[in-house]
Amino acid sequence: MIKLIVGTKGTGKTKTLIDMAKKAAEESKGNVVCVEKGDKLARELPNTVRLVNSDEYQIKGFANLFGFLAGFLAGNYDITHLFVDGTFKIGKVGEVEKDYEGFAAMVQKLSQIQSDAEIIFTVSCDEADLPITMKDFMVK
Fold it and tell me: What is the pTM of this model?
């Protein structure tokens, strides 16, 4: 299952993700992973959440991000929750600030992977900017 926490800058997306990750860490019988650009969440999340800095793995672009996330899921069947913060920052390649179509294509590919993990992205934009195919994934 994929969920998108969508909103413009300053609307509390990361706070929502932190709250969801803390709850998942308390309740999960498996592994909880959080991927972010940088390491600003290191003090916010419990040490039971595996924190991954995308910069350390040189992840740039949605094709790379898809491969990285798919590899995580393939390599560890015990992942119950996979959080991604700053999705468009990780997905940025070149001068294109926000690749909406690339993001949508990645989400569609991830939705076809056979996994019981819940995948949650923070997406910094207005809901109207995303392709219509993303509406069903948005957290209300």
Answer: 0.93
